[in-house]
C-alpha cells in the first residue's frame, strides 16, 4: 500500500486575486471582471425524514427547507446527501408528474423478485427486505449536486427522490454536507 | 431536526507546513520531503453537449477539451459532473471497444419494457419517455472523479459515457465543478 | 461553451469566527458556543485490494485500516472512493448478514444474461466480461461518504462493498480522496 499524501490547504502569501471571466454563473454579488476572495466553508447536518410509504417520493422541498439558509452562503460549491440506510435509496428524477414516481416503483418491483418465487436466502426480516437491499444498491444512497449562486443547480425538471423500499415505514436519516465558497 | 454546523475554513495561525511522504502521487512540482502550501480552488462551468442519438456515447475527449486547462491547475482534488436531465445518464465504463456501449444499450432496452407491453402510466411524451426516466436513475446523472497531478485519475480502460435514452436527440447540459489544491 | 470561473479560496481578512450551534455533530474538541478555525486539508492515496472471487465483498475494515489515521484529522468532510476498473463495482449495503451479499450476486446474475443465450457482441474476453461491464455501471465505481468527527458517518448497518464481476480474480485499485477541515 502506498502511504497517503496529506495536503494542508493554506493560502499562499501574496497570491494574486483571480479575475472572473464572463460566464453565466458569475456569483451575483460580483460583476464580470471583478475579483473575489473567499474562505472555503463546510456545513453539515443530519435531516430526519418522517416515515414514507413504500414507493418513490419527491423530497426536494423538505431538503431545501432544511438547508436553504446555509446554501445561500455559497457562491460555488457542492451539496452532498447521504442516506444512512440499506433498504431505501436517493436518486434524481422528474419533479413534476407523480406517475413517473409510480412507474419507477412498478419497474423496481418487476425487476427484483419478491415472495414465494424469489431465490433469496436472506428472508428473516420479511419478503420485502432482501428486494429492498437490492433496490438500494441499484439507485444508491448518495447524491452530489452542484451549488451555484446560493442554490442547488439542478435542471428544470430534476428533483430529489427518496425511494422507500420497505413495506413498513420508518424515519430515514440523511446527512447533508455543504462545501464551497 | 438538528441545526447545522457551519465551518468557516480559516488557516490556523502558525500552523506548520505538512511534509509530503513518499508515494506515487506526489505532485510533480514537489520533491518527496518538500512541504507545500496551497489555496483551495473552485472552478465551475456548464458544458452543452450536442444532440447524440439514443445509445451510449464516450464523451471523455469532449469533457477534457472543456476542462483540461482548468484541471492542470489542481495537484489534488475532485472533478464533479452533473447532467441536468432526467432522461439521459452519466456512467463510467470501457473506453475502447464500442461494442461494449452497444451491448449496454441492448441491456437497458431488455431490462426496461417499452411499447405496448409496458405497464407505464406516464406515456404522454412517447413510449421511450418513461423507460428513459428509469434508465436515468439506474445509471445516475452524477459522477465524481479524483484529480491527481492535473489530470482525471481514471483507470486505463475507463471513460466517461453519456447515455442518451430518448429517441429524439436534444442538446444536454453538464455542470462540471472542480475543487482541490 | 461558456468559459469557466476559477475561484481561488482565500480567507477574507478579518472575517469573523463562526459560532457553533448546538447539534449532534459538534466536533468533539469543541464545546457548543465555542468558535473554530481550521485549514481545509486534502489527502489522497491509492489502495490495492487483493484478488477477490466473483461476488460481493465487505471491504469496510480493509479501507478503514488504510485511511483511519488520516480520517482522524478531519472534523467535517467527505471521503471519496473511486474504483479504477470497468468490470467491478463499489456500493454501500448491509454490513452484517453475508446472505445479503450472496443474494445480491444472485440478483445480478439473473438480471444480466450470460453465456449462450446472451445477446452480447463483446465476447472476446469471455462470457463473464460483458455482463461484468453492465453490472459495473448498474452499481457504479464511485462512492462519497460524509466524515464527521474523524470517522466515516455511515448508518449502523451500512458497509462498503466491492463487487467483483469477473470469474478470474485480479487485484483492484481504489483511489481514496479525503477533503475537509
From TrEMBL, chains A, B, C:
One Pfam family matching this protein: YjbQ
Q: Which InterPro entries match?
A: UPF0047_YjbQ-like, YjbQ-like_sf
Show the PANTHER family listed in the entry: SECONDARY THIAMINE-PHOSPHATE SYNTHASE ENZYME, UNCHARACTERIZED PROTEIN YJBQ-RELATED
| Protein name in UniProt | Uncharacterized protein
Give the organism, scientific name: Tetracentron sinense (Spur-leaf)
Amino acid at each position: 500500500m502506498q502511504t497517503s499524501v496529506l495536503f494542508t490547504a493554506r493560502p499562499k502569501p501574496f497570491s494574486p486575486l483571480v479575475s472572473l471571466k464572463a460566464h453565466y454563473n458569475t456569483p451575483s454579488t460580483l460583476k464580470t471582471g471583478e475579483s473575489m476572495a473567499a474562505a472555503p466553508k463546510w456545513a453539515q447536518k443530519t435531516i430526519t425524514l418522517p416515515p414514507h410509504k413504500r414507493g418513490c417520493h419527491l423530497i426536494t422541498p423538505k431538503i431545501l427547507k432544511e438547508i436553504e439558509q446555509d446554501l445561500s452562503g455559497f457562491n460555488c460549491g457542492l451539496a452532498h446527501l447521504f442516506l444512512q440506510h440499506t433498504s431505501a435509496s436517493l436518486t434524481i428524477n422528474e419533479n413534476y408528474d407523480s406517475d413517473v414516481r409510480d412507474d419507477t416503483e412498478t419497474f423496481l418491483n418487476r425487476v427484483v423478485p419478491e415472495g414465494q418465487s424469489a431465490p433469496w436466502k436472506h428472508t428473516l426480516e420479511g419478503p420485502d427486505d432482501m428486494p429492498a437491499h437490492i433496490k438500494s444498491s441499484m439507485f444508491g444512497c448518495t447524491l452530489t449536486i452542484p451549488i451555484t449562486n446560493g442554490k442547488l443547480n439542478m435542471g428544470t425538471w430534476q428533483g430529489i427522490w427518496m425511494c422507500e423500499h420497505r413495506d413498513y415505514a420508518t424515519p430515514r436519516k440523511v446527512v447533508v454536507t455543504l462545501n464551497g465558497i
